[in-house]
Every structure is written in C-alpha cells, then in structure tokens.
Amino acid sequence: MKVLVIDALARASGSRYSTFDVVGAGPRVVAGIIKNAGFKTDLKAYELVINKPELLRNYETILISAMSSDKGALSKLLNLIENINYKGKIIVGGPISFEYKELLKNNPRINYVLIGEAEIPLPKLLDNIISGEKVGNVPAVAFKDENGEIKVTSPHIYTPAEIISKNKPWVEIEKSYPDHKVYRYYVEVVRGCSNYFRPIISGIDGLNCIKCFICRKGDLDKRMYCPANIPPGCGFCSVPYMFGPARSRSIDSIVEEINELVGHGAKRIVLSAPDFLDYGRDLLVKPKPLTDPCHPKPNIEMIEALLSSLFEIDRVRNKSVRIFIENIKACLVTEDLAKILGKYLSGTTIHIGLETGDSKYNSLVLGKPISVEHVYKAVKLLKANGLRPYVYLMYGLPLANEKVYRKTLRVISKLSSLGVEKITLYKFVPLPGTAFQNLKPDIKQYSRIISLIKKKVEKYNLLTKTSFIGRKIHVLLLHSNGKYYGYPINHGPTVFVKGLTSPGFSGCEALVEIYDVAPRFLWGKFIRILTC
Asked: CA-CA distance, 281 to 297, in Å (whole number)?
C-alpha cells in the first residue's frame, strides 16, 4: 500500500500570506512512522497537492495533518478528493483530531480520525486497512460504524519517550516542499508540557475547582488527574491534555535527524518544544512524570550536551546552517542557563509567554506558573547573554477585568524599558482539550482599554524596528505571488524585498538593505545574491 501524508498545518482557509517559511514537526514525524513501518510513503505540502490533484490517484491511503484553525484548507482538500472520485481511505490527524465528532459528522469522506499521537496506533490502523479487518483493536481511532454512529476505540495515548526517540522522522524535504531551502524546519526535541497546574476557579461553565491543590503541591503522579476533571495546563492551552507531560528525545536521534535535514538542503532548524527548557528535566524526576512546571530547575548538562553535539555538525559550526529555539518558561531561566544559551545561540530570538501583567490572575485564573517578575528577570539574563527576547501577551481572556488590563499596560512600558525586541499580542481563542474550551473571548466589555493595549504594542513594535533602517542583513529569498519575501538568517521580521524581479532566485541567500519598517514587517532593497 502506498500512503500520502499531506501537510495542511497553518494553511487556514487554504492560503498563507507571509509566514510561508514554517514547517511543523508533526507531518514529518507521521511520514516517518509510516515509512519506518514498511509502507511506501510520500509527504507533500498542501500547495503541491491542491495545484496538482492527479497526484492523489497514486495512493491507496491519504493522511491529512491539520490544526483546528485549518478547517477551510481541510474542506478544500476533501472537496478535491471527492471531485476526482478518489477510492482510497482518508485519515485525518494532528491537533484537529480532538474535534473528531464534528469532523466525522460534517465530512462523510473521512474514514478515520486518528486522535493524538500516532506512533502506536497508526501502523496498526494501516495494517487493518490492508487486511480489511475492523479497527476495534486499534487505540485512539474515531470512525462511523455501519449505522452511522460515531465510535471511538479508546482515549488518546501518550507515546513513551523511548518510542518517540526510535522513530526516524521524514527528512526528504526536497520532495515535499517547494523552495525547500528557505523553510524553518521544526525538529521535535520535547513532546508534551510540564505545566500541570490548572485554573483555580469554580462556578463557570463546568470549571469547579475544589481547591485540593493536588495539581500544584501533590505528588508528580497525582498531578496527572484532577478530581474536578479540569484539563491540565494553562486554561487556553491544549498541549498537556493532547500530548501529556514533557518527554525528551535522545540526543543521538535529534542530531541524526538534523544532520540528514542539512544534507537534504535545510538551512534553518528550530528545536521544537512547548518549552525548550523542559529538555532533559524529565530525566531528573524519572520514573515519575514531569508535571511540575518550575521544579526541578533546568537540566543544564543535557541542554549543553545537545547544543554542543549539534555544533559538531560542520555546517552548523560554520553558521551556514542556523539553529534556533523558540518557547521557554521564564521561571526556568537561571544565570547559568542563560550563559549556555548565549554560548551557542547568541543573536537569535527566543519567545517567553506572559499573557497578562497581573501575576495573581495568571496563577489563579489561567493556571500559569509565570509571574511578571519571572519574565523581567528572564529578559535581563537572556539579553545580557546576546539573545533577542520576544514576549507574548493575550487579550479577551476569561475573567480578565479592567485591573488586569491596566497592569498589562504597565508591563508593556516595563518590557519596553528592558528592550525586548518584540511584543506579540494574541486574541484568546477557545480550543478543544483546554479548561477554557467552552468560554468565549470577552472583548466588547473592555474594548476601550484593549484598544489602548493594541496601540501601545503596535507603537513599540514599530519603534524597535526602526533600528533596522540602514542595516544590511542576510535573508533567504522566497518568490510568491509575484513578490519576493526575505527571511532573516537569524530569524526576525519578514522583509518585503524590492529591486529583484526575476522569479529564479527563490531559495537563494541575498544581502538586502532595510529602508522602511512597519509594526510587523520590513522593506529591504536588494543588493546582491550571496549563495544559491
């Protein structure tokens, strides 16, 4: 049986507008699982399939990986499949899988929804498709039975760390993504999250905390389960519920994957984790699960062992390939940790979640272990060691009041004085598998002060970007819709490149001079091609 995996992540209704350069880890992990199980496998980006539907006839089974925000893209793929009268099986997976009831109810062309992690159930499901057996013995699969009723074989399961490490993700990126040398490839180093705190609120849409505080002070095993059935983690985040406590991949498996990605043309690698600083912390509490977000402190030895091993790769060491990390929890940033990150990753960006300027609200309502002071300290340490901190804030969160927003305004001023490179402001969106999944964004009541926060963030982001004017920076070029986008080698805001008209330079590295800025983007004048 020949199997196709379609990467539809972050395609929204079927289009990307500027962030063309991100390749998530999930679809490559899934394609690797299938290939390692002995099936003939291909991985294709959404764009390669939607523009060439005849490709689909070459496969007996199709898997589509998507997020909840990608329902439009999924619908377009399913319509395409229906229009060409495709006869094979359709499996849907990824974060969208937790909405299996809606998917199966509204999309009769979907045969199976694989819920959560794929390492254990997916090979069994494919074997059953070949043999024609029913899927009742396969865990974590949703489907419609003969009577049209939606059935689930079992709850989703969390894959043990040793199995995650044994799987070899797909690395043949030149077959899967157009302009494959431009992308940032996310390489999974940690799966799951250590924050098993929960919102300490009750009487609101099924949230009825009994204040047992097991999730904050109890044994690490006991924190997995809540007597009031409140999902773990920050109230807006689905990672702990969907992917369980943090589990680290082995250093050898990560280095092997990145080495092969580099061999296939990758130039930018993101060490992907809900929190990179969880890497190796699970080993410090083993055999118990890592369900405490801030204790023990980072496993500095493991983090340095990973980074030093990666910098033994020739092209990483000579900086023709760049390594990044993304998200971290501020409570885990220590002076020693910041020095290690600066030693290997100086000049790159790093992202810190704060959400609001009210530490008490963050803790009690959001279930977030991060205080304002944690973030201030982390920003100072990271900047002192050559990193470029970004900070996340949110608006529209449940129970956020005037006081919370006023404190957030003050925090923006303080972050500005500390010199964070960017403040990223998000609107709260309820997601399945979260404590806040049934709550709506609360915006209208506080629209005036939310507007002030938006304006202040936009003003600051525009101010910080003015420092780019006149600078010459290295970018990777991507031609799309008649325009050239430039993605900074060390990450940073997207550059609209002017002065280059031929479409033949996609994938090349170029030197551009920045001449104008906007709160989210830069404009740069093309100077010359550096390498292709």
From this structure: 8
pLDDT given for residue 171 in this prediction: 98
Strands 247-248 and 190-191: antiparallel
Helix-strand-coil percent breakdown of the chain, rounded to 5?
35, 25, 40
Kindly state the helix (H) or strand (E) to which residue 472 belongs, with its residue range: strand 472-480
Q: How far apart are CA 476 and CA 177, in angstroms?
A: 15
For residue 41, give both structure tokens: 């496998």
Closest to 194 measured CA to CA, from 222, 166, 224, 164? 224
The dihedral through the CA atoms of 248, 253, 256, 260 has a sign that is negative
First to last CA, the chain: 37
Segment (H or E) for 89 = strand 89-93
Helix (H, G, I), strand (E, B) or coil at 404: helix
Q: What is the CA radius of gyration of the chain?
A: 23
Identify residue 166 by its one-letter amino acid code: K
- Dihedral, CA of residue 361, residue 365, residue 371 and residue 372, to nearest 10: -40
What is the tens place of the pLDDT at every residue in 414-463? 999 999 999 999 999 999 999 999 999 989 999 999 999 999 999 999 99
Distance CA 261, CA 43 (A): 14
Regarding pTM above 0.90, the answer is: yes
